[in-house]
Amino acid sequence: MFHIVVCGSVAPDPLQTLEPVAGSAGPGLKNEMLLPHVLDPWAAHALYEAAALAKSAAGSKIWLVSLGPKAKLQQVMMTMAQKAPFDLLALDGPASGFTDASETAAALADAICGIPGLDWSRLLVFGGWESATRCAGATLQLVGERLGIVDQFLGVDRMTVLPDGSAAKCTFYGDRAVGDIGEGLRTCWQRIRPVKLESLDCKCEYLEACRGGCRYRAELLENPQGRDLYRCSLYGVIDKAE
Known about the structure:
By secondary structure, this protein is α/β, with parallel strands linked by helices. It contains eight helices and eleven strands.
């Protein structure tokens, strides 16, 4: 039996026309709150895996802890509840843009600590935080640290399976596949070399929270070990107008 907590939020439906805009809080989407929303793809995958595990272990229970605008959360979760059994803990707050990883992790961890009847000896924490909502990949690591979870597997160095069956570090690296699913996902995953923080040219005080940002965006500026200016803008390391 397991007590499984899934952390995830909502994101604008990618089937809609998404128009990027520059706002006071950083890059965003035009009329974002008016767009139909879905459960973030990473969160949806985590919830699917949690449901499959709970089904195989009698007596297991799932909680979905979600931070986002409550009106959007309620709309999406009514649909999701028909696909997987879970209890929803909805935390009102921003779902998109460049939210601070530490503040987000603190809110999620506090909510998990407040779950009545949670058996900590049987606790598993799953996540997606977050791809489509553009939040920091470090959030789930920080949640785990706040909860005292020392055994963590984080997909910050992710792998994507493309429509043709090839596997790449992520969709942006689709032209640099590391193998094919016919070889097995483990084989492909082992060919991806994680980027160590100490190897980056980023030396600012926020590196542990930001985790160096997106390496693909750094490559666009012709320095694979350089800065991701979007993340630097979020943390105020550079001016947003640069």
